[in-house]
Amino acid sequence: MIKLSLSLVAALYSTNAAQVYQVIYPSFNESFGDAVIFKDEPDQAAGGSDLIVGCNNNMQCARSLLHFDVNHLPDDAIVTDVQMTLLPAASVAEEDPSMTMNLHQVTRPWSRTTDSIPDGERDTWVESLAGTAAADGDVTWKYAIYPDSEWATAGGDVDDEVILTSVESKGWSDRASPLFFPMTDAFRRLVQGWIDGTVENNGVLVKRDADEDPNVVGMRILFHEQSGNKDYRSPKLLITYTSESRPEQMPSPPSGPGILLPGEPTRAPTTSAPTPEPACPITATGVEIFTGTSSQHASIFKDKGGLSQDKGAFGVGIVHSGEILRGLIKFPVVSIPKGSTITCAEIILQTTGPCGPCKGLVDVEMHRITSGWTTTGTNDFLAQQQPLLYQVELQGAGANSGDVTWTHSTYDAANPDGGGTRWGTAGGDVDPLVISMEVDDERGQHKFPSSEGFVDAIQSFVDGTADNHGFLFKTEESDEYVALKAEENSYKDYDTAYRLFKGEDEEEEAERPLLVVHYTLPKVVAAAPTSDNVPKSDPASTPPVTDNSAPSQSASDAPADTAAADTDPAPATSSALFGMQVYCSIVMVMSMLAISWSY
Q: Under a CB-based contact definition with an 8 Å cutoff, are residues 513 and 330 in contact?
């Protein structure tokens, strides 16, 4: 049992807790490697080929041994999650019975060479299973190190405790997915002991669940440490740990392309499908583009009126603590000119969290919030003690005055029952229309694409016909949906289906929530002449004009092109008359001045 001082535990889970890192360790790179031993065959070995676990049709059985070197991890590393994966190398008929595999700690050193391999080709092993002659230094059913060091117990010296069990392995055709061995506390303690040196690292032994039953047929062929020089196929440990002594991410040893962390399916290097284009690309032309991050966000907890969370990432869905969460977010759009026409709207959120399989599969929908809500930005999710993994439990803290909760848009901690402002409907006042659904098209990035309802919501914010209270994210929350998601998620006992989205307080600007809006500016219409905008003459500076200063001109006397014009000729006649009056007035004034000067 690993013992931690209270001060170390406190340091790890304080506000300034050690950074969580993730790393993959394959079964090669300074390790013993892996090997196969054949039941009741003391002189047969297979140290340089596929791993075999179980019994064939003729009840010829095999077990596999694995060793992982973890000496390069920091001495103060604290393991918070560790899983193992094995990648099947041969298909199994879909009608064949399923099986699981158990993992045991090996208690005695062993070795192997790469000279020995199973006899024959893979497709013959179902009927005839045997190794080749053991070389000096090989491990066999009888010998830990052939031919000098025997096992105390034939078949391998192991601890009786099953420290890890694989997920159920069913029959399949075509390319297989990796078989996962989800974490247990026993395995986490073992790997922790390997790292800190309190447990001798002799690796592990894998055998099938009904290994001792001579009547149960079932065999799996699995890729070994460097099958065909393709590193991605090798057995792997997926380790999540914290460390304070090394403030940088430890690199994974070479593992090949296509590796995902931590605990997500380890895929072969294939060409991924093109990422769907954004609904509202920020490089679009012919439109004005608004981009902006959120001003506030929060998580609220179903039926928990006294809990809040409005700092750090916010959660949506069914989480490991048993809570059902909804997420709220608000984006200011006041910089979009009033009168603009919205043509496209999209929200892009980045996800976080240390454990991919923990999250499960979830459908997230978005609604417009119809009444105001407030946050204080003071409550993050509660820190979790080992063995619980940070950002998996997602437990809320006691709400402060001014926080939003399930029952209150603005909570009053001093008077929870009678104070504050309550939602009209518990869980948030929202328009029932689903205006967008999450598109999970990139690792870590999730889009809520444009729709007619989404565009209408932004348009109403800009026009002022609706107040901008932001958006609410939720999943279906019925008992049937919760049960369905629990059945879908086979990761440990999590029964989870959620998202954990980064907020506007994320340190990296590129990781913060982003709203993208396309719009066209309002058209500028020239004002028609009115009595208010036609220039007026100053009567003090304009001499009086008499009606007989010039003869008037009728529409019939006007030039032909003027008379034929679409406009009413009367204004043109008045203009001409006015011009003649002004001209005569000027002539009269000049004449009077000339007379005065002559005297």
A: no
